[in-house]
């Protein structure tokens, strides 16, 4: 029985690696990781936590070390503590569209989860193609390298191509690089220290 499940899973990855990865992500209750992003605005390092159905916490390491952001889908607001210590002092209550809580590339906190990323990749795939380049290694981890490229003239949020390295076991993205229509790199994101379905403290997403 286990062999049949593994064969079916492998076929799914071969047929549509992005859909297979998204199905795995959607089955999770939450995750936490260290996010390292490099783009035209410099480097950002964030300790990132996510819990369904959309709770997000970001503990900033760089460039605003100590700042904490919490987004709660039940309020639709982002709480910001520029100098840390949530729960000990009141934070700023902001809309997710506020420039103070958007990344250097304009990413919103409420649209920062890996599921949203993969859905953007799927949108691009609908107007292009996905290629599974095969298994390889990334920093000692077995991964599947996938390239999703749009038809000429197409893009999603300026992105015309994604390179993804999906974990060989969990299919969770470990690295994502995006390019514009001219083939120039927009952003490189490394997802490290993955912890899937962790037991979060009861107040982890509370102001």
TrEMBL record:
Superkingdom, taxonomy of origin: Bacteria
Gene3D superfamilies: Lipoprotein localisation LolA/LolB/LppX
Name assigned to this protein: DUF1571 domain-containing protein
Source organism per UniProt: Billgrantia antri
């Amino acid at each position: 029985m286990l062999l049949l499940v593994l064969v079916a899973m492998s076929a799914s990855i071969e047929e549509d690696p992005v859909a297979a990865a998204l199905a795995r992500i959607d089955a999770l209750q939450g995750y936490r990781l260290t996010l390292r992003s490099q783009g035209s605005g410099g480097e950002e390092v964030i300790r990132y936590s996510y819990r369904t159905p959309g709770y997000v916490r970001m503990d900033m390491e760089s460039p605003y070390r100590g700042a904490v952001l919490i987004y709660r889908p039940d309020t639709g607001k982002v709480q910001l503590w520029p100098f840390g210590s949530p729960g000990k002092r009141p934070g700023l209550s902001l809309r997710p569209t506020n420039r103070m809580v958007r990344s250097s590339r304009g990413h919103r906190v409420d649209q920062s989860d890996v599921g949203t990323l993969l859905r953007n990749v799927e949108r691009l795939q609908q107007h292009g193609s996905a290629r599974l380049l095969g298994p390889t290694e990334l920093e000692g981890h077995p991964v599947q390298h996938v390239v999703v490229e749009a038809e000429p003239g197409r893009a999603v949020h300026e992105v015309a191509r994604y390179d993804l390295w999906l974990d060989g076991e969990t299919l969770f993205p470990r690295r994502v690089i995006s390019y514009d229509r001219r083939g120039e790199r927009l952003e490189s994101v490394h997802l490290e220290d993955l912890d899937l379905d962790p037991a979060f403290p009861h107040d982890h997403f509370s102001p």
